[in-house]
Amino acid sequence: MEEQEQKNTEYFVIKAKEQGVQVIGLTRGKDTRFHHTEKLDKGEVLIAQFTDHTSAVKVRGKAIVMTKHGVVDTEE
Ligand code: TRP
């Protein structure tokens, strides 16, 4: 597979542990801003990728975040 085809293939999973967890996508490139906010209800799961438009993701609220780097719980 060529390098270009292998870009942004990785998925991450977010599971909401409370109502109204926000998953916020931040733009790729020079200008870093919010471009999308997804609201999850308790128990809802979002499966998403990093893309040409999204280079970072911010999670607000109690959730479990699963990536290839491991599992992170936003709760203290
Ligand atoms: N249209 C967005 C994109 O392709 C959708 C998206 C992908 C997104 N991953 C995300 C939105 C993560 C929020 C968080 O980049």
From TrEMBL:
InterPro entries: MtrB, Trp_RNA-bd_attenuator-like_dom, Trp_RNA-bd_attenuator_dom
Superkingdom, natural source: Bacteria
Cross-referenced SUPFAM superfamilies: TRAP-like
One Pfam family from the record: TrpBP
Keywords in alphabetical order: RNA-binding, Transcription, Transcription regulation
UniProt key word Transcription regulation: yes
Tryptophan RNA-binding attenuator protein domain location: 8-75
Similarity comment: Belongs to the MtrB family.
Subunit structure: Oligomer of 11 identical subunits arranged in doughnut-like structure.
Name the record gives this protein: Transcription attenuation protein MtrB
